[in-house]
Amino acid sequence: MTRSSTLEIKKIVYTVPSRLIGETVRVHVYHDRLALFIGHTLTGTLPRVYPKAGQERGRCIDYRHIIHSLSAKPQAFRFLQFREELLPTETYRKLWQTCDQQFDAQDACKWIVGILRLAMDHDCEERLGHELLALVDNNQRLPTLNALQARYLGQQPVPRIPARQQDLASYDQLLQGHWHRTEAVGHA
User: pLDDT per residue over 69-114, tens digit each?
Assistant: First the structure.
């Protein structure tokens, strides 16, 4: 597996989960999918893609596979050869055009990579994209990445788990072999 989290099968470049970088992966090619194996363990499947009519090569890019590594170096987004394919929908392509105009070059890359990361981490790709595009359509400025992160990261309340302290005497009874037996309920 390459360091760029891609592999090429029959003239098609596929992105794969970054956890497979450096692994020796065996690929079974079927008419509709690729099955990825490490040893005898199936580690994932990818949809099979064929070159478009008149083209010799193609790509199957899934941003979810590389967004974590891209988050470490968001400036790489601007010069990616498969940048357009990395954006999952037309909505995100429009958002990229807007943020590239609204922010300076460095902040635009950081913003779009951050949005993709939020979309993946919180499984809200469609909702987030439509919400942001609605702002653009209403001639409003895009929110800062910090504002969006605060909003989405703040949505996960920490569950309260009540703690019950056990009486130490019950442990002494347990160690001495005195078991506390509960009576069965409902016997007739």
Answer: 889 999 999 998 888 899 999 999 999 999 999 999 999 999 999 9
Contact present, 48 and 31 (Cβ < 8 Å) = yes
Q: Is residue 22 domain-shared with residue 83, that is, in the same domain?
A: no
Q: Is 113 exposed, middle or buried (0-12, 13-18, 19+ CB in 10 A)?
A: buried
- For residue 72, being part of any structural domain is answered with yes
Token pair recorded at residue 80: 């990616």
- Residues 11, 58 contacting (CB under 8 angstroms): yes
Please give the tally of structural domains in the chain: 2
Q: Per residue in 4-43, pLDDT tens? A: 788 899 999 999 888 888 888 899 999 999 999 999 999 9
Residue at token pair 């429009």:
94
Residue keyed to tokens 């790509």: 59
Q: Which residues form the domain of 135?
A: 66-153
With beta carbons less than 8 A apart as the criterion, state whether 38 and 28 touch. no
- Phi, psi of 174, deg, nearest 5: -65, -45
Q: How far is CA 44 from the centre of its chain?
A: 15
| 3 and 47 in a common domain | yes
* Cβ 62 vs Cβ 48: under 8 Å: no
CB-CB neighbours of 52 under 10 Å: 9
Sign, CA dihedral 111-113-148-140, equals: positive
